[in-house]
Amino acid sequence: MRVLFATMAARSHVYAQVTLASALRTAGHEVLVASQPDVLDDIVRAGLTRVRIGEDLNIEEETREANASFEDDRNLGGLAMSNTRDDPLPWDHALGMFTAMTAMVFQNVCPEPMVDDLVGLARDWRPDLVVWDPLTLAGPVAARLSGAAHARLLFGPDQMGRNRTAFRALLDRQRPSCVTTRCAEWLTWTLERWRRQRLDMSEELVLGQWTIDPTPPSMRIPLDLPCVPVRYVPYNGPSLLPDWLREPPRHPRRLCLTLGVSLGEATGAGTVAASDVLAAVDGLDVEVVATLSRNCQELGTLPANVRAVDFVRLNALLPSCSGIIHHGGSGTFMTALAHATPQLIVPDMMWDAMEKAHGLARSGAGGYVDAKDVSPDLLRERVLDLFDDPSYAAGARRVRAEIVGTPSPNDIVPVLERLTAEHQAGGPERSPALKSPSTGGA
Q1: By its UniProt entry, which NCBIfam families does this protein fall under (predicted)?
Q2: CATH classification of 243-404, choosing from 3.40.630.190, 3.30.40.10, 3.90.1310.10, 3.40.50.2000?
Q3: pLDDT tens track for 283-324
Q4: Residue 149, SS3?
Q5: Which of 7, 52, 138, 252: CA 20 to 30 A from 318?
Q6: Pairing mode, strands 2-6 and 129-132
Q7: Average pLDDT over residues 117-135
């Protein structure tokens, strides 16, 4: 079958799709990965076939502007989707969240030229299955307009699924005049530009016909949605293995410090200062490997036990580490779980970082420090606790056992083949008579 992957133009989002795309390709299926020009080189370096859609997304600039606009309330800004509250999500908060998400994220990630290019590609190439990034709603639009089956491929806990499910339950109880939302308006208008007839908004356009979920079972958000669990297999991009990594650590224990490649590119800052973390580890009998080379001049003289590097693949580094401090990025979080590396998270409050921090604490595989409480003394205390308390290593091993026990990307290929056959449309939406978009809408 033909499988089209649609991803947000950010390196970490591309990386989250590589192992499944590779599994489908090695199983004999035709695979294309479509995104804006920003990440086309990353797709090729992963050994996959790329297709350019739209123009440069410039996610760094877009996210900085979004943060500046909503710096006083990032929850309503839509960038923080974590809902760790015990009480039900209030209607006004849920409506504000998805209104902001549509304007700031969905429409920014999928501007009109990108949507049209992806729909045109799907119409011409006729994929059987479209696998899409949860923020790339152009994927399900293209699938619906070409008759393909489609599935979300998650990059972490399904915070979107939980919030969207809660939002729909609240929406169904509102007055008829409140039923139309910005997300529904945008998706309906987008469909109608192509079909020039009324196509009703469906929740499948936000949540997929089914979801492919790499989250370990104990950290998975329980939802009544069709789900295909898959083992998380790390892909951190191409790199050379440095000579020092083949040598024994210079101290009894090694600690990885990363504040996130994607976060730094997207926002220019994190929620914890690197100087605070370095002060916390100064003098400890620990070798700290820190991805800080680009900013070393600003930090001055580094502690003697810190090895600053520009980049090193976590998949290669973490097997030699006794712990990791990071910001809560999905690739870092999931790779550490896959290697049973105890974690200390300082959540950056972007997207679902707090959800991951709470899940980590519940699992016993690590802990977190709230950004507003960060200090060198507190970080030092938590780092020592991470090393000295054996329960964290035991918890990390339990989670890794869950991951190993989950079907691999290769194992789920027959499942995806079956689901595609069940969901693929064969009616007029796969007809060559599909029109080009209309600028006037329906």
Answers
A1: glycosyl_450act
A2: 3.40.50.2000
A3: 999 999 998 755 555 667 889 999 988 888 999 999 999 999
A4: strand
A5: 7
A6: parallel
A7: 97
